[in-house]
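Hey team,

Filing this mostly as a record. A colleague (T.K.) asked me to run one chain through the structure pipeline before their review meeting, and I want the input and output archived in the tracker in case anyone asks later how it was produced. No errors, nothing strange. Just documentation.

Input sequence:
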Amino acid sequence: MFNNFYSGRRILVTGHTGFKGSWLALWLHELGAQVTGLALPPNTEPNHFDLIGLKNLIHHIEGDIRDFKMVQKAFDASQPEIVFHLAAQPLVRDSYDDPKMTFDTNIGGTVNVLEAIRHCPSVKAAVVVTSDKCYENKEWVWGYRENDPMGGHDPYSASKGATEIVCSAYLRSFFQKSGDMTENSGDMTRIRQNSVSCPRNSDFPEFHRFCHCSRRQRHRWW
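Output structure:
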């Protein structure tokens, strides 16, 4: 698969203890990559990270992306060629409870990762994962386009819109010149993902309640 592109590649994944990050790290490991993960401990029990024994398959670093020294340490140790940045405060409802932590993590943490990339000559490509909630909410019926304005009514959505602007600034200021990602050219892609709810993902209890309610009760959700 992928013509063995990932085989032997040094890859850093932030947020690898989360649901999507753990699947990504496992997939990259199975493709032969040398995977390093930087993340906080899993915040649910049980969780996918522990269920698949990922800690024993990759180089696991427990740390907070809000701590730039910790981020820099992870880059120094792994010397990654490719970076997948997934670490974030991922829930809208939690952003109302702690907006400062949400902004510090999603914006400030991303700045820390981009700064580490900027000063790490080994990095050739980066993928920054944000959210489809990054767009200014127009309350219209059709989908948003990639060139629609960033925005967000709630702290989570606003943090993701701001993260997109930060990434764009780093890309244009430092990564679009020539050669590698250290104040030169490299490939940086942003992915505006949506929510995923499926077995082993316990972050969306509302969806699980929906799946187990009666047909009449389900109708009320819509």
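Quick notes for T.K.: Confidence is low (pLDDT under 50) at residues 218-222. Strands lie at 10-14, 34-39, 59-62, 82-85, 125-131, 187-193.
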